[in-house]
Amino acid sequence: MSREARLKMERELKEGALPALVGTASLELGIDIGAVDLVVHLQSPKAVAQGLQRVGRSGHLVGQTSKGRIFSTHREDLVEAAAVVRGMLAGDVEATTTPRNPLDVLAQQIVAMVAAREWQVDELLAVVRRAYPYRDLTPRAYQAVLEMVSGRFSSEVHRTLRPRIHWDRVNGRLLALPGSRLQALLDGGTIPDTGSFGAYLPDGKTRIGELDEEFVFETRPGDTFALGSQVWRVLDIDQDRVVVVEAPGAVPRMPFWHGDFPWRPFELGQRVGALRRELVEQLQALRAATGTATFREALNRSDHPAVARAVAGLRDSCALDVNSAAVLLDYVAGQLDGAGAISTDRTVLVEVFDDALGDPRLVVHSPFGGRVNGPWGLALAGALRERTGVQVEVQTNDDGILLRFPEADADFPLDIVGGLGPAEARERVLRELPDSAVFGARFRQNAGRALLLPGRKGGKRTPFWLQRLRARDLLQAVRGFEDFPIVAETYRDCLEDVMDLPHLEQVLGGIERGEIEVVAVESAVPSPVAHSLLRDFINIYMYEWDVPKAERQLQSLSVNRELLQDLLRDVAFDELLRPEALDDLRAHLQHIAATARARTPDELVLALEDLGDLTLEEVEERTTRCASAWLAALESEGRVARVAVRMAGGVEQRWAAAEYAAEYRDAFTGDRGACSRILERYLRVAGPVTVDAIRARYAFPRPWLQAELERLVDERRLAHGSFTPGTSRAVPPAERTDASGGGSGEGTKAAEYVEVTALEQLHRRTLGILRREVQAVPYTVYADLLGRWQHVTPAERLSGLEGLRSVLEQLRAAPIAAQVWERDVLPARLRRYDPADLDALVQGGELVWVFGGGPTRVARGCVSCSAARGGSSSMCRRPTSTSWPRSRVRCMRSCGNRGRYSSPTCATGSEWRRRRSKQR
């Protein structure tokens, strides 16, 4: 809500004007909400710290006692709420951890610090290590982040990872680039973008709430929706806000949001398990004291002192009322009667049963929370898939793991739960994690914090679905880099923040040492605890296809890139790609475009690092000012150097980054590794090139060059074929006549090679050009086109017998009244219409005039012309005028039209002339 609305509610609550206030996470904020008598909490607070903070909003004065009521909605929620309350009464708050070495935040801070002033590399590292989270930051991780923000990976994936700062490796300096300061100011922050739109009143200041982006995509101005306790009508939808007005009495839609579910912490899971274990011990003692056969029969002896003591104990330790204590005891007793055991902090229950379709289900009862059960389920699914060969479906929550064998006859190997050790579980989770949805979502958030994704442009936010699409492409591009910092940070984030792998290893270690017992049971029906997992499973698959339209459209954009790259061999794209798209791509890859030229000496060094080597003329073409002075200054600092490059016409002096000088020196003295690096760097920015074009710039041996290009094609880093628009077809390998991959003869051209990511950019630019060309024209242009196409405009009119034949061919099958043909239609399209020409075509049998009728009796007297043989006719109505006697009309079948219509008639020759003269 807006600040004004919040302050008003706080003031009215303090003054007593509001008897109650409904809130969510706002109770955890440090706002002054005044004197509160009671906090009513719906469902478990999910943690002791949260429970203390929320209930602590009441009685928030010295000497007063905080009061709260927790209302549970189901039995498992009651167990968790009782454990939370017991922890609150004991003051047993969960441990707070600080993230260690978050590399995404480090990247953002480095850009901001360098934007403020110049830094030495070692000096900046010393300052960063003074912060508590980075006290153990290693030089290797620090340098990897510097590599990322300085654009060292951009040579591999082009503009996706353009440099944010400049790293002068020769002098060990970090320098700002144009735009570094603005990006740090606009895109900084650690709160991830959730794609929410603010809902505002027409004044543009009063904020009433937030709406999910996908809900907004499905909303149009004029729609109504419910927010809070009122109905609102949408007036306008802007880039990042929705303007609404009250609409009382209207039928609203219900908005939806996508949020993170608050998983149970591991410490609370241990408390839940301990509470269950104590309840089991009490029930066992109660059954022994009452001498009953089942636990529920023992509870039914409400007059027994042991039952009263059990209920009183729960009321004292967990602050439960009588009904809640009875329900809690009954829930545990029902689980013990049904399965013989219940999961605790020292027991893990493995339950197997068949669902309604006969498919086997396995439930691992574990109270340790979803952050532990989630990675445990991933590891178990991988192990079961390897052992049985069946793809296992997994569903987890705070109380266990549900595994399903879809349409499989194999049985669950129950020993796999107890036999999975900590080391094997970690290895399997690391193997399964990169392909999971949580990994992609966390990578997007981390990449956004590291300033790698597009932020706000022109004061407008980037649509959330475009951010996800860009993040997916970025992940696809950098997944092959072992030392890419954001991939490593995403692993750490998933394993420690989203999941709880350290505590999972603790649980599995306890099972391995015998401290936690694994009990396996087979039952005909699921136990009471298993019902909660089944309820979640049903909710997920009941609404599996009921996803927002924006999400479905995003999923439809996914392309199997491996399959696409398999097809990019010996292809001919020159007829599909546009030359202006290729020119624009080369201008940007080569830093020739106006927006890609170097504006400072630091950007010139980055251009040389990207392009490799340039002559003085080429450098001047890629800079906005005098390049000679910049090169002289950079050479004196040792950041650039002159290199001798052997080309087809001899040796040429070029400029290159100082760190590449040794590479060029070794390349032309027989070092094939240096040659490969120079070749790959050139191919990344050259666009489509032939073997001869490469050898014109670098005197590489032709056999080695051809073999190296084929290796890159086999590794799917290059595409082979014909890509330059306007060229003839590329020569496939089977037709090559020489080592160059080219051919001789008319109609052929030497094959081209292009880097795959450059080809993708070329394809996107071509699509953009084509989309811009397909634009709606004004009605005046469309009318002019119709006039010229129908030969109505004076300049386009036809003449003679051939002109008449063309006009009739164009108008064939058009149902037009008979008198209109010679009065309006034909004279308007011919410079000089002669009826004799029409008679000649009819008498010669070239034309057949077809007319027909229908039950509606409309369009009286309509006729259409058709070729006498092989022509098509129209759905015109049969004329009913007495001037067209049916007895004197020959059948359509005799004219070669094969009775194409139900009740047609046609006329040729003298019959047509007689009818025409009568109508005249």
What's the arrangement of secondary structure elements?
Blueprint: H1 3-15, E1 39-42, H2 48-55, E2 68-71, H3 75-90, H4 103-116, E3 119-120, H5 121-129, H6 139-149, H7 154-157, E4 165-168, E5 173-176, H8 180-186, E6 196-200, E7 207-212, H9 213-217, E8 224-227, E9 230-237, E10 241-246, H10 266-290, H11 295-300, H12 305-318, H13 322-339, E11 347-354, E12 360-365, H14 370-388, E13 393-397, E14 400-404, H15 415-419, H16 422-432, H17 437-449, H18 464-478, H19 485-498, H20 501-513, E15 517-522, H21 528-542, H22 549-556, H23 561-567, E16 569-572, H24 579-589, H25 601-611, E17 613-614, H26 616-621, H27 627-636, E18 640-647, E19 650-657, H28 661-667, H29 672-686, E20 689-690, H30 691-697, H31 702-714, E21 718-722, E22 729-730, E23 748-749, E24 752-755, H32 756-773, H33 779-789, H34 800-810, E25 816-817, H35 818-829, H36 835-843, E26 847-852, E27 862-867, E28 904-907, H37 909-919
Parallel strand pairs: 1-2, 6-10, 11-15, 16-21, 22-23
Antiparallel strand pairs: 3-5, 4-5, 6-7, 8-9, 9-10, 11-12, 12-14, 13-14, 17-19, 18-19, 20-24, 21-24, 25-27, 26-27, 26-28
Helix pairs in contact: 2-3, 3-10, 4-6, 4-8, 4-17, 10-13, 12-13, 14-16, 16-20, 17-18, 17-19, 24-32, 28-29
